[in-house]
Write a structure and sequence with these properties.
63 residues
């Protein structure tokens, strides 16, 4: 089941293989290598969460 199918089926009340999950603002696309000193994602403590969001959540990308 794709992320999109999972989300739409869940909204419609149709059974899904697992619940759709999202971290809302953390979606795995944050720039952890930005030289901007105000980019909070530069801190190494964010890396595991960002990787988890990228690899294991139901991030639906714009096409």
């Amino acid at each position: 089941m794709t992320r999109y199918e999972r989300l739409m089926n869940s909204i419609k009340g149709i059974p899904v293989d697992r619940p759709p999950v999202s971290f809302y603002e953390i979606n795995g696309t944050e720039d952890i290598n930005s030289p901007d000193p105000f980019n909070i994602y530069n801190d190494p403590s964010w890396k595991p969460l960002i990787e988890l969001a990228r690899d294991c959540t139901d991030r639906i990308e714009d096409h």
